[in-house]
Amino acid sequence: MDTTHYPPSTAANAAPSPRIWEVGALCRAVADALAARFNPVEVRGELSGFSRAASGHCYFNLKDANGQVRCAMFRRSAQALDFNPRDGELVEVVGKLGVYEQRGDLQLIVEGMRRAGQGALFEQFLRLKAQLESEGLFDSERKRQLPLMPRGIGIVTSLGAAALHDVVTALRRRVPQLPVVLVPALVQGAQAAPSMVAALQKLYRLAEAQIAYDARLSIDAPAVAIDTILLVRGGGSLEDLWAFNDEQLARTVVQSPVPLVSGVGHETDFTIADFCADLRAPTPTAAAELVCQPRDVWLGALQLAEQRLVDGVERHLDRQQQRLDMAARQIGRPSALVHGQQQMLDRLGRRLQSAAQSQLHGQDKRVQQLASVFPTVAGRHLERSEQRLAQLHARLELLNPRQVLSRGYALLTDMQGQVVSSVTQATPGKAMHAELADGSVDVVATQRLLV
């Protein structure tokens, strides 16, 4: 509780007494007032004292000639940065003002950061990137593999660029025997994009001439075969590299008749040309290293291939020498060969005779076996046949009509021998013939009765 005593005031000079704040409450009230008045806020200033903690949070000051403010950028926001902030760099940040209550300091919590002046350029970059990507210029299916052993390399860069020195140094160290064609071009400024387009088209004509020669469509071979093209430039700000974000340059890069490698800026720099190229290298030196294997690697592979070839030839010669020695021994003693063939012929003759005798002996035993069992088998077959015949005879006798006559029945026919089976056929006075079991009689119908 606050126990401070103030002198009493008279009624004449009485005035409202000021509110007595707790320190923490005052800090919170100031923070609320700042949030209501300013947030969110965008600030432009120069980076000072930039540091990145092990937790991933970034702490720095943002200042200009008239003042500075403490800033904190938490890990989630810091991970979204597309560049590495450095002290002295002019940036634009967006965030929220607040009060760090433990120290009572004004603090800006930064949620986004970009290099100053890049807002409009970056938006233009994103629009062009989206347009070209929708047209398929960035498709991986369109991009080609680099040749394993290029016959020549074309380079487009500025004569005064440090990137040219880096690329030439790397190529001279790795493949000093490889021819290189340099077509100089501007790599920065308003005329840089048209200059690089013209340089690339010149290299394209050389590459197409070599392609036509390889296909035997051209008589004269070009002076240098261009199998790979490098488009390189050192690092810089977005404005410095803006020529590589030109639409016409991007479309020209896509039209390359041979694989094209883009090595522009540092590892964190990306341009439209990088997306259109067959391969992006993080630096110009890396681009040179990607397009060619060191000469020592190929020399080592060549020596290994040579040793394998020598070993293979020697093994082949050894085998042929052995065959020659064997043939020489055979030709020097033909009687041994004839004797061997005669022995083989004798063995085959004995095997043939033995096989024939064995087969004849087996057939003879088979005939004897059949002769011994034939009477028994034939007798059983004849007995079964007689039984079958007797059964058929008995069944036939059962169907004999004369057997029916023996039981008192008669077979009645007319005088022409036609069987009388109905009373309608026996008219009164008609003469008929009746056959009985032991003879026959002639009868005359006297009366016809229907049942």
From TrEMBL:
Database matches in CDD domains: ExoVII_LU_OBF
UniProt record, GO biological process: DNA catabolic process
EC numbers: 3.1.11.6
Entry-linked Pfam families: Exonuc_VII_L, tRNA_anti_2
Every OB-fold nucleic acid binding domain range: 22-114
One GO cellular component term noted in the UniProt record for this chain: exodeoxyribonuclease VII complex
InterPro entries assigned: Exonuc_VII_L (IPR003753), Exonuc_VII_lsu_C (IPR020579), OB-fold_nuc-bd_dom (IPR025824)
Superkingdom classification of source: Bacteria
Keyword Zinc in record: no
Top-tier EC class: hydrolase
Catalytic reactions of this protein: Exonucleolytic cleavage in either 5'- to 3'- or 3'- to 5'-direction to yield nucleoside 5'-phosphates
Keyword Hydrolase listed: yes
Subcellular location: Cytoplasm
Molecular function per GO: exodeoxyribonuclease VII activity; nucleic acid binding
Description of how the protein assembles with itself and partners: Heterooligomer composed of large and small subunits.
PANTHER family: EXODEOXYRIBONUCLEASE 7 LARGE SUBUNIT
Sequence similarity: Belongs to the XseA family.
Protein name (Swiss-Prot/TrEMBL): Exodeoxyribonuclease 7 large subunit
Taxonomic source organism: Comamonas koreensis
